[in-house]
Every structure is written in C-alpha cells, then in structure tokens.
Sequence to fold (93 residues):
Amino acid sequence: MRKSIIVNDMSQCLVCGNPNVEVHHAIHGTANRKIADKYDLILPLCDKHHRGSQGPHMNGVIDLKYIQMAQKAFEDKVGDREEFRKLFGKSWL
Fold:
C-alpha cells in the first residue's frame, strides 16, 4: 500500500471509509503529478469520491480543498512555502 503525508490511513476512502480505494494525486498535471508522487501527496478515495460528481476531478471546490491539504502537509512535514512554490510554481494557501 502506498503511503501519504496527508493522511495516515490509505486503506479506506477519506470521505466515506469505503475500502475500495483509488489513489488521488492531490496536486495534478503531468509535471506536478510526478512531484506529488515524490513527496507522497496522495489521498485514498473510492470511485464515487474520486471521479464522481462529488470528486476532485468533477468539482473544483473539492479539488482545491485537496490541493490545499497537500500543500499544508508539505509545509508541515517537508519544507516551507517558498520551497513548495519552487516545486509547484505557485501557492494555493
């Protein structure tokens, strides 16, 4: 099972607890996804909460929430905001 610096438990959906999870890269886009993988900026989401209408791929508000969670986790556990900006090109906080 993959590890995440955002959540402690990757075995169930962050939203509903469903054990059938998919990995969501909290910060996405071709280059950003690779960087997100390097720093374990991932979340466990079931199909409904990953690709459904209430998931980050279909709902910009939820997408932003997860991006901000990832940035906060990075700043708490890896580096500062300036380092985050250098890696991802901007800050969402």
Q: What stands out?
A: The helical segments are 30-38, 47-51, 60-77, 81-88. The longest strand covers residues 22-25.
